[in-house]
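Q: How would the structure tokens look for this protein?
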Amino acid sequence: MTEERKTNTPETEEVTESKNFIHNFIDEDIAEGGQFQGMTVHTRFPPEPNGYLHIGHCKALCIDFGTAEKYGGLCNLRMDDTNPAKEDTEYVDAIKQDIHWLGFDWGDRFYYGSDYFEKDYEYAVELIKKGLAYVCELSPEEFRANRGDIGIPATSPYRDRPIEENLRLFEMMKNGEVEEGKMTLRAKIDLASGNFNMRDPVIYRIRFINHHRQGTKWCIFPMYDFAHPIQDALEGITHSLCSLEYEEHRPLYDWVVNNVSIPYHKPRQIEFARLGIDHTVMSKRKLRQLVEERRVSGWDDPRMPTLCGLRRRGYTARSIRNFCEVIGVGKTPSVIEYATLEHCLRDDLNQTAERTMAVLHPVKLTVVNYPEGRSESFEVENNPTDPEAGTHTITFSRDLWIEADDFMAEPIPKYKRLTPNGLECRLKGAYLVKCVGYETDENGHVTEVKVEYDPESRGGNPADGRKVKGATIHWVDAHNCVDAEVRLYDNLFNDPQPDGADKNFLDCLNPNSLIVLNGCKVEKAMVEVAAAFDKQENRTGINAPTFQFMRVGYFCLDNRDSSADHLVFNRSVSLKDSFKK
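A: Here is the predicted structure in token form.
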């Protein structure tokens, strides 16, 4: 559903502009003769503050804010706090933080759905006076039993109540004189409608509960399908962009704005398919369950699909916005491979992340013919894709650390790293070395690899020009490194579709989604990096420094647990790209 069109800039440079079916509709609406001709395109993002934003919300907010940006319009941020059971100011603050982190802003157009409770009530009374709403006393069970079926109309014995009686009962509901669940206010539309959302839907219910902003001022609360179109209209929204499940609710949306006396234009609702990603769940109820049952460390656990969790894992705002651009906007629901999201991050970090050397499974490497007590320095490029990123200095000595996998006492076929057979390998940026022996413990585990270096191969190039058949391996100087804790994250669920109707999503949890490695070795300069980050205000709301550990992957400082005294790195994404281009 996404197409591209080519335009010319004032400099006559040809560029490609993304365009989708939503933009097509808006183009028609603002064109000459369109319903919003001459008007500013005005959208809104209305999250419910009952949890943290996740990657699914990100698609919606990129569409809402991105559309406003494209047309030079406006986008409101409105907290849909009409259902106070799970809502909290903690979530309000987190939502604001995440949206700003992504690079969007709502200016002075920040609202709460509860700001309109008085207006919602007035319009409900107006509908009653018009004979378009009535108080119903069916219990939830009776309501379902009387809903009818295809070809069978719904019924309600209270539908023809006199207007005055409905007004009196609704006032009693408002004043707290009716017990919870005893009465509802229903719109009077069409009990025989083929769209069950139009069969006299409930538009107000009673809840004796403390609201995070209104306290106990109200004990009746409008349903979303009633409050939302009113809020859109009152704010001057031109295009109400929402996910596909609201398509069947659109007739009710239009019915509400057409039957209350809002002295403004009527917004146009346009639906798009929600984002689905494999190996995860998007339900806030289920995500909350994971947090409350301590299956994860919190809403910002790096395995969670929440934006704060993705940020803590090292995902950048640009990578997530690029991901939303890559998947496009359509009307057909689909499930995107998690590898697509990883590809977008890997592509971004490849251009921006500085390179450093780190050893996750250290084994001692002794250069037996290198003088004891001697040390020398080498310059290593910070980012080969960006020459302007410069270099940083590393030291080399007789005692080094290498990865355990970079030595094999009994090599398998085509193994090109250090082995007792004397295969020559490069130490990244330093010298050529070959194995001359090794030591093991009582269990046969290699504890030390002994090598000789070629003094005439500084920089990794032999003076005689001989061909080096071995691999280039990374290392750190044992006299100029520090220990670090490294957390290796994988998918939280080992089932691609843990949210299936026939599954308990908790049974699909991946027991190996987090592996913690202690005693890893990183360049000593990482202490200064962590110390500088320690001074940052609101560390959890920003991206921590991210590096490419050469030959290993991309890793970021943990924005909550890491410190200069205890380095903690989270693996953001591996180097291998499994994305199907």
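The radius of gyration is 31 Å.

Residues 1-17 have pLDDT under 50 and may be disordered.

Upvote if useful.
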